[in-house]
Target: G-protein alpha subunit
Amino acid sequence: MIRTSRPPSVHSTATDLGDPLSAILRPPPTETDRDRLLRLQREEEAKRISDSIDEEIRLDRERYKKSKEDVKLLLLGQAESGKSTLQKQFQLIYNPTSLEEERLSWRVVIYYNIVRPVLRILEALDVYGDEVESDDDSDKGRSAQVIVHASASQASLPPPSPSPSVEQRLSALRLCLSPLSSVEASLANRLSDGVAVSGSGKGSVMVRSGWQARAFGLSFGKARERTSSAKGRFSFTGQRKVERDKLVEDVANLLNACKDDIRELWGHAVVKRLRENRKLRLEEWAEYFLNNIERVSSPGYVPTIDDILHARIQTMGVAEHIFDVPLHGRNVTWHLYDVGGARGQRHTWVPYFDDATAIIFLAPVSAFDQYLSEDPRTNRVDDSLQLFKQICSNQLLKNAHLVLFLNKVDVLATKLARGVQVKKYITSYGDRPNEVDAVVGYFKAHFTQVHTRNNENKRVLYTHLTSVVDTKAMQSIISNVRDSIFRDYLKKAALV
Ligand SMILES: Nc1nc2c(ncn2[C@@H]2O[C@H](COP(=O)(O)OP(=O)(O)OP(=O)(O)O)[C@@H](O)[C@H]2O)c(=O)[nH]1
Ligand SMILES: [Mg+2]
Model:
């Protein structure tokens, strides 16, 4: 024989006679049918909410457990060291369609990367132009000839006098290119979404992760992005989108109209002289886009992947990019954290340290003749070494797999070929040969020494010589880095 109990009820009256809470919750004896129905509906709704909270907690727990299995890779290094460019190379390998989809949106950055150096060249001419012109009279004649020849195809310039002086010609170019100064601020404003940022020290534009989406109201590919510093998502009305596109189209038309003048200015003997005697210094991306001015400013221009890799925009805060990386037939989720490297941005890195699986530290070896724009007394290689020391000795990072990229080897080679002397900037370099292998070897020894002296955990340092804009070479370097990170990852997983 079995004994059965009554079906349980939320407000059981049989078992809770002594329980004051149950007594309060018990329906009043005068409850009507309608009241009862309403009460049951309320209870059902409360249960639904409670169940959904339980489910959320369960999913959160699962997500947390799973995210502990994810690889978290930090890209660290000073500003302009190549972190965002390396991130694009990862994107190209593990989520190529997203970079394809972004191509058009990079026009605004590339146009900014052209307008800004052109204006800097004009400023340098204002300051040093006369000096350079009077340096060498014979060259004056040579420059004038170049100009007469080049100006024959110029519709936008005033008709050349039979033999215009260098000065007259440069004045004419200045006049023709003056409309660019008004678009510089508009492009900067568009990119930074009107946010003025301190800490870059360079007066150039900084953007947060997801800038394309904010600037154009578009979303790109599958790559999920989060940012530590965005206060919230921006949403744009269709009207604003149209106005913004109009700006890019206007700049495209302007550049197309000015491209012969820009090309002439860039190839001008006086400008070349200013660059040779280093009174005018332009960054590598400026040179790249000015060398490609014809293509980049032609109508209907769509940036190539190579253009995107050379485009320069400073990162603000920390941008998270998520990729699925295959490992033995299953996918492991990789979180790539691309940080802003300027001094004013470095405090944003710390919250990402304690669960980092691996670090790639980028040190641009070409920067031996440059000083921090945030602190013009500090040599950039010296800053890299100091920063690397802090990373190596940081207790929160002591278990992270450590990779060092001695980057911008191609830029170093170009600089040395131009005759720039390392010992002039790094006095300790002494009389060692002014050649790529020797210079890279010298810097490598210094970084290795910093690592050795700050290596409590006896961890291995994996060093690569890189030019992160070189897609072909990066494919094999990234797969090499991936394998070494996975080896450590599997070893640690086996110990858990
Ligand atoms: N030629 C050449 N250019 C490079 C190399 N690495 C980076 N660049 C260029 O240098 C510029 C700066 O690179 P980014 O990747 O933006 O530098 P970053 O480290 O992200 O800088 P922040 O965001 O300010 O911290 C870009 O225009 C890149 O195309 C390289 O190895 N060779
Ligand atoms: Mg960056």
Notes: Residues 33-67 form the longest helix (35 residues). Residues 77, 79-85, 284-285, 309-310, 312, 314-315, 340-342, 407-408, 410-411, 467-469 surround guanosine-5'-triphosphate (ligand 1) (CB under 6 Å). The radius of gyration is 31 Å. Residues 7-17, 136-155, 197-201, 218-243 have pLDDT under 50 and may be disordered.
